[in-house]
What does this fold into?
Amino acid sequence: MTDAVLNAPQARRLRLHTGDLLPILTVLLVIVAVWYLGAIRMNAAWERDQAARAGVQLTTSELVSRTLTQDRPVLPAPHQVAQGLWEGVAGQAVTSRRSLVWHAWVTLSATLAGFGIGTALGIVLAVGIVHSRVMDLSVMPWAVASQTVPILAIAPMVIVVLASVGVTGLLPKAIIAAWLSFFPVLVGMVKGLRTPDGMQLDLMRSWSAPKTRVFWNLRLPSSLPYLFASLKVAIAAALVGTIVGELPAGATAGLGARLLSGSYYGQTVQIWSALFAAAILAAVLVALIGLIERTVLSRMGLAR
Amino acid sequence: MSALPILGVWLGGIALNVWLARINTRLSRGLIAAVFGLTLILLWEMAVRIYQIPTVILPAPSQIAASFAANRSILWTDFVQTILRGALMGWVIGAFAAILTAIAIDRSPFLQRGLLPIGNFVAALPIVGIAPILVMWFGFDWQSKAAVVVVMVFFPILVNMVAGLKATDALQRDLMASWAAPYGASLWKLRLPAAMPFLFNGLKITTTLALIGAIVAEFFGSPTRGMGFRISTAVGRLDLPLVWAEIVVAALAGTLFYGIVALAEKKVTFWHPSQRG
Amino acid sequence: MDAVIEAQRVSLTFQTADGPVHALKDVDLAIAPGEFVSFIGPSGCGKTTFLRSVAALETPTSGRLSVNGMEPDAARRARAYGFVFQAPGLYPWRTISGNISLPLEIMGFSRSERAERVARVLDLVELTGFAGKFPWQLSGGMQQRASIARALAFDADILLMDEPFGALDEIVRDRLNEALLALWRKTGKTIGFVTHSIPEAVYLSTKIVVMSPRPGRITKVIDSPLPPERPLEIRDTPEFIALAHEVREGLREGHGYD
Amino acid sequence: MDAVIEAQRVSLTFQTADGPVHALKDVDLAIAPGEFVSFIGPSGCGKTTFLRSVAALETPTSGRLSVNGMEPDAARRARAYGFVFQAPGLYPWRTISGNISLPLEIMGFSRSERAERVARVLDLVELTGFAGKFPWQLSGGMQQRASIARALAFDADILLMDEPFGALDEIVRDRLNEALLALWRKTGKTIGFVTHSIPEAVYLSTKIVVMSPRPGRITKVIDSPLPPERPLEIRDTPEFIALAHEVREGLREGHGYD
Amino acid sequence: DELTLQLKWVTQAQFAGYYVAQAQGFYEEEGLDVTILPGGPDIAPTQVLAGGGADVIVEWMPAALAARERGLPLVNIAQPFKSSGMMLTCLAETGIQNPETDFAGKTLGVWFSGNEYPFLSWMNTLGLSTEGGEGGVTVLKQGFNVDPLLQKQAACISTMTYNEYGQVLDAGLSEDDLVTFKYEDQGVATLEDGLYVLESTLEDDAMVDRLARFVRASMKGWEYAAANPDEAAEIVLENDETGAQTMEHQARMMREIALLLEGSDGTLDEADYQRTVDTLLSGGSDPVISAAPEGAWSPVVTDRAFN
Ligand SMILES: Nc1ncnc2c1ncn2[C@@H]1O[C@H](COP(=O)(O)OP(=O)(O)OP(=O)(O)O)[C@@H](O)[C@H]1O
Ligand SMILES: Nc1ncnc2c1ncn2[C@@H]1O[C@H](COP(=O)(O)OP(=O)(O)OP(=O)(O)O)[C@@H](O)[C@H]1O
Ligand SMILES: Cc1ncc(C[n+]2csc(CCO)c2C)c(N)n1
Ligand SMILES: [Mg+2]
Ligand SMILES: [Mg+2]
It folds into this structure.
């Protein structure tokens, strides 16, 4: 049954082919168009008010052009965001504090550290849960509960508490990132490690394979598709965790700090630039995991 | 020296659980989780007392319990505002949207190739960044919180659902093809059932995300009720027991929410090897 | 040309990581309406691949294949086939009766009609009483029978069966062979049937196709002189034994190539 | 008592949602060392279940089962068994040779020893050349042969085989039958073998166990008078035909109960 | 000597004095090595102090007194800000002119996290319920910025003279479009940025000495900053790691801050303290503090610093 599940050599994997360009561009175009319309709509109210206050009458074209060039638009137009991004990335030396590359780097390092810790923790717990009934019954409900703790509320406390014992800098953020990222790994990994069907397990039993063997040669390989799916969610979660950790950390550096200060000063373009920088970062990270996934799975003959 | 009683309680809890694990009844299974939790709480209480940790850093469980009892009506109001309105509504809407989108994506190769990469990208937008924007767009009340939750839960459910719709095996698909099953039939009778284990994976992960989203969004503006609101004001007043009482409510609600979804999963995907045990 | 299934120089090559596998090479075959054709040949010679190509589940790399004068794909969409796969392929979330009624649901049979047909085919494959069980609660042979029942439940004009009776004991197998033969005589279906049993092939078929592997080719096509009415005892007649011998020789030759 | 496998009043009942299924009922059987025992019986009569119980993959609901004088579970842990399942059950992420060498890895064979054994058994099941392919790149019969090779690769004292040759053509089947018989004679293994083919059972076994279904019982145990040396031609001898007849009659009776 | 200072908010000209003192070497002259920790929206400086993450914090007096009632013995050691910069900024088009009569039924944006006390006292003196309804006001927990006003989600929002008010103007509204109510003018002003330490810190004479030098240097920094607003703004910018602040905004903020500093040499004026306490005690049904605090401020540090 399971070999049949994985037996789909002809099913094509999602990959960027030249043939994908057209659909992607089309969808992009639609999104950008909707975005522009939205920007005009959402920003128009303000322009009309302003015009009314000044007692002038705006023509439609004037209105449109103004809505797309506001300093603090409700919704910045795509080209404004693009410009903000461009200036943040290319317009500054990478070491400058105005450079998005610098802030992205600060965020990235904490994200990766947290992702590493979280993934390791998730896998270790999952292995424990699959092998020990005590752990299964006692850890899982509390792992769930841990995720329902509102991190944004806890984050400042974590940072304060860690600071009071002298831990500052990257680690507190990484811990918050790990907190968020271990859970998807845990859930996916538990499911994955339990995927082997009766016959596959029976084979192992008939060889009287020790648990470690069953783990390395059966459970782990069959869990890999689940693991990779979870890792993609987990790295995105780690990024969110880092940014959350950066928000109350006193707005020092990182994309979260950029978001916050942008938000604080109502600089929507800056918010959106930071947001897109974060999304690009996440997309790159997810794509990277996808790449690893494809190499690993195809080497194992599991690529679909 | 002062660590000794803590160590003792810890070992005692473990021993009790190992013993309980031997007798496999419904009751003992419930007890194990409870014993584990009680041990943790006991350790916490002891640590706070022995090391004299100030309340404003970490209140003891007993203080939290007292605050919980004293503030029941506040906690209930906040629960309704944040969890029933914000989180639950958002989760339901987001889940439906994600499932429908996944089906659309699965149906149309064009969308699949065009929307999924972009969807991946959009979904990678960190919610904390979106929250202030959505509050700006949807106002201060629960609608904006639900919107944040929709955005947060959409991606994980979508990804899982898309993967699930593809998770049919070749033989099962060939059968459908040999019957010339129209799209609708192969969706209803093959793809959707086969996708259920994956879908529930997504639904389970997002139950907790929904709570986080709804609470976090309140930090960016809210009426004067809600769990996020209460937490941030209570932190400002250094009323940490109340903060933790709210956290306890969140954890209870989240665990319950997760439990319900997990139960539904058991019922729906009874046929999957991971459920057959 | 009034062939139901016609293959002209059909070849099919699988591309694998370590080089191409020639599953079929220059296969020519014509099957007339109402024929019962058995395919026999060593494991890996392309029997499954050929049947799948006929049902438009694989696409030949070259050559022409037509079914009812159409492309196989068009025929598939016209619901010309009932297919029994080599593995049972039951849907684990449906009970046995649910599995059997699934194609009926898809083809729009009424509820009562479905119930009636499910009961009939369950009886045919001797699984009455297991209607409410789930696939994993059945033995291997029972699963195989359920999958046969599923293919028989809707009356497709062409039945393609890939080793349907491989996991069954001789007695059930004999009974099912008789039942299949009776069904075929009554309905005039065209049947493509893969088997490893020479007596079974000889007993059932009007035409026996012997194949050899690497690359998969047809080495012999034997038309059966046996009458359509075939009691089980026919297996002891000299014609039968001679025919079986001929098939066995054909198989031996194919193996010799290895 | 020198029986390798001994069953005393073994019963096994599956609890399912719609009532219990009695898979085995009061099964008594003793198998001496070096015996080749075939199990034959209608589909669903409990053959697989019995073999699985012997290998400690199911636990009887009542009765006593001992293997080498131990509990089946202890025997399993002593690596007494090689098991061939009814379905191939190859691990999709390992190549064919990887699948075969897996139990060897687990049992701690050296790398060179593994390579040597894999090559030997691949040759035995005629799959040399497919070592590097993944399971889904093989035909059904080839997968089944790979799974047999896997069980033969490590020299377990007790071989339990559940319809190992079901998906193979007659010629390969004959060859593998001969090979298995040779192996058995040379090594003196104890073999439990499920088959649906009466000639196969008679050709291979020293003892044939006929079972009947619902509840699964042993209806007949036939000791074979055939000598250990068995050329393929033995199948045309009167002893052989008489024995086959006896088995067929036993089977008929079992079916009669239905 | 090392000293850690936890700010109440992000790096901005509101804290220019400390950054200037550091940049100009005033701390160094006093033999101090000061670490300045920026705050953030969810950092409660009081909590940081309690956790031992800082030696001194910048905090508003209402929050400090509330924490004191919670059992955290905070003591004010110096008060650089003499007057309050808080106000309520309303859209003129909502017709609000007189707080006594026009607030009822309106939606007002308020900062929470410990900054809500002055507002609650004010509403209490006005006799308005903050639970909404006909006779009361609807309160919104205002986020980080002035959007609720621009989006007309609230009739009035909280602003600081030195910060948000400027943002509202920057956004394109003119002073004519706005009506503002300063807490100072309404008689409900409470003391803002002051320096606080834990009571136990003051028991250590060496610490008191260190703090005295710190306050002295900080006040020097403030003087310098008030005199050279542009240079101070530049120093703030240099210390801003987000790179988000602009020179223009910080320079203007510095000038507004200078107005709040006027009349203070760092020593707490007891009359101001008393007014703050009185305002807070009048918190109505849910007063911020329930009893006049004892020992919530101490002149020992400023005495040693300036005498
Ligand atoms: N998906 C695939 N990818 C690569 N090679 C394949 C694939 N499917 C089949 N083959 C190869 O094609 C050849 C023919 O396979 P096929 O399944 O048609 O054999 P068969 O005659 O049905 O054998 P059997 O009797 O064992 O079922 C085999 O050599 C097999 O390895
Ligand atoms: N996991 C299970 N749950 C419930 N019933 C089961 C289960 N496994 C087997 N059975 C039932 O037990 C009976 C015996 O099954 P078993 O697999 O032993 O038959 P078998 O003799 O091997 O048949 P076959 O020749 O078809 O493989 C069958 O009626 C089957 O439905
Ligand atoms: C959540 C939140 N709280 C307070 C303020 C307003 N604010 C900005 S500076 C300052 C004085 C403290 O130094 C205050 C109260 C805000 N914008 N957001
Ligand atoms: Mg085949
Ligand atoms: Mg069986």
